[in-house]
Amino acid sequence: xxxxxxxxxxxxxxxxxxxxxxxxxxxxxxxxxxxxxxxxxxxxxxxxxxxxxxxxxxxxxxxxxxxxxxxxxxxxxxxxxxxxxxxxxxxxxxxxxxxxxxxxxxxxxxxxxxxxxxxxxxxxxxxxxxxxxxxxxxxxxxxxxxxxxxxxxxxxxxxxxxxxxxxxxxxxxxxxxxxxxxxxxxxxxxxxxxxxxxxxxxxxxxxxxxxxxxxxxxxxxxxxxxxxxxxxxxxxxxxxxxxxxxxxxxxxxxxxxxxxxxxxxxxxxxxxxxxxxxxxxxxxxxxxxxxxxxxxxxxxxxxxxxxxxxxxxxxxxxxxxxxxxxxxxxxxxxxxxxxxxxxxxxxxxxxxxxxxxx
Length: 358
Ligand SMILES: *[C@@H]1O[C@H](CO)[C@@H](O)[C@H](O)[C@H]1NC(C)=O
Ligand SMILES: *[C@@H]1O[C@H](CO)[C@@H](O)[C@H](O)[C@H]1NC(C)=O
Ligand SMILES: *[C@@H]1O[C@H](CO)[C@@H](O)[C@H](O)[C@H]1NC(C)=O
Ligand SMILES: *[C@@H]1O[C@H](CO)[C@@H](O)[C@H](O)[C@H]1NC(C)=O
Known about the structure:
single chain; alpha+beta; Cathepsin B, Chain A; 2 domains; 7-stranded mixed beta sheet; 35% helix; 11% strand; globular; binds 2-acetamido-2-deoxy-beta-D-glucopyranose
């Protein structure tokens, strides 16, 4: 009896205690919750103003955006907490922060038509993956290099929701190769490439720069000036005709897999010209600036975007490549992204192309 009484008391006490423990936190949580929600709404309305977003308040859309924004804040906080230095990538509220990660991927990225080893060779094997053969001793590269400083890189473009990163990046590299060769920097028509390129390329619905280069060289396509064939960011009817004036890509372009051989990327950058690379850009949704070293896995099956590398800096505390993106000048560092060297960050070494022009 006594022992039952004792047990009962203990039991009741335990219950009471746990009720207290459960009860008090719930009470505090509710208050906190309301305060957190209010703070979130305040932050969100300031975000909405800054980025000129228009949602009907309390509409379904507004609620979904608010939820995405809440998730964005959490991810940003977590990634920034793990920063190792002031040079490390900094994440924050970008114009994309009200999209879910899936929406961001669907709108701005395209599943990369991974061409490594699957490219349409059809007798054109001259740009095979010969990087390993080139591995021999490389001359030292300069400690830093930037084609922009030579005045041979055109301005940053904005692809908007047109998934033609493969065209923007390749055309940018070609523009620079023309400028290196002729001393004249001219913008070439990305729209021509969007409308005309075949071999699996689908205009704004995605493509691959290696198969674009294959197509350009197979048909000896001339890329005309941007002024003659202006950017519309939609899939249009191809208006290119054989014999049109424009730039022709030489058929000795490269398309290499350089994981573990990133010194070859540096070598190409310093001694040849910009290189086009495929990347996984899903984490760039919140990128503000600094060198990306983490949160950006480089598995080949994750590739979903293409950019052009225009330089590098080995003297920086975290050595980095300078990548020109096509999401407008407001993105990242005036439209550019810094990617750490030597660890296949964002998959930067999975598919690397150099081009030459006739
Ligand atoms: C928002 O609109 C204002 C006024 O039109 C403009 O000055 C500002 O640059 C816009 N901001 C963004 C992020 O688009
Ligand atoms: C491969 O290239 C040939 C032209 O050389 C073309 O007719 C064919 O459609 C291409 N195949 C693919 C899958 O792109
Ligand atoms: C490619 O086109 C250019 C100019 O349109 C022409 O001069 C050249 O001979 C062509 N080359 C081939 C291989 O068709
Ligand atoms: C293509 O060939 C030219 C001349 O032989 C050479 O200078 C250039 O480096 C080559 N381009 C590539 C991308 O290998």
